[in-house]
Design a protein that fits this description.
The protein is of the alpha+beta class. The chain has four helices and five strands. It starts with a strand and ends with a strand.
């Protein structure tokens, strides 16, 4: 995976993030630029994977303190004090099979362990 880079998302990544999200909307909730700007401010972990071709994946996650109205997030918030809610993980179809999601999850897990957060949670989309 030496040709991939992982870093924090920036506003300049928003067009590519919206494109990737749109390509996976059958599994995710729709996202437009105003909503992305809002939730990116609330996100605790918003990482992207890039290659020479550009942005190829991202992971967006929240702590319970986030001001986020997603029903799945609110379900966890009502039941647990300490967790990181993984809202969405998207990898471009052209780059699946390169273990990019695995790396994004691993980076988040490392961060959670370092901060003493006992749970990574997400909604099952199937």
């Amino acid at each position: 995976m030496s040709n991939f880079q992982f870093r924090a998302a920036t506003q300049s990544d928003f067009p590519a993030i919206l494109t990737l999200n749109h390509q996976s909307e059958e599994f995710l909730s729709p996202l437009d630029r105003p909503k992305l700007a809002q939730i990116s401010n609330e996100a605790e972990f918003f990482q992207v994977a890039t290659s020479l071709e550009g942005l190829v994946g991202f992971l967006l996650a929240f702590l319970p303190e986030a001001d986020y109205d997603n029903p799945n997030f609110l379900w966890f918030k009502a039941r647990y004090e300490h967790f990181i809610y993984i809202d969405r993980v998207v990898v471009s179809e052209d780059f699946r099979g390169h273990h990019l999601a695995t790396r994004l999850y691993a980076d988040l897990r490392t961060e959670a362990i370092a901060r003493g957060i006992p749970r990574l949670v997400l909604r099952n989309s199937h």
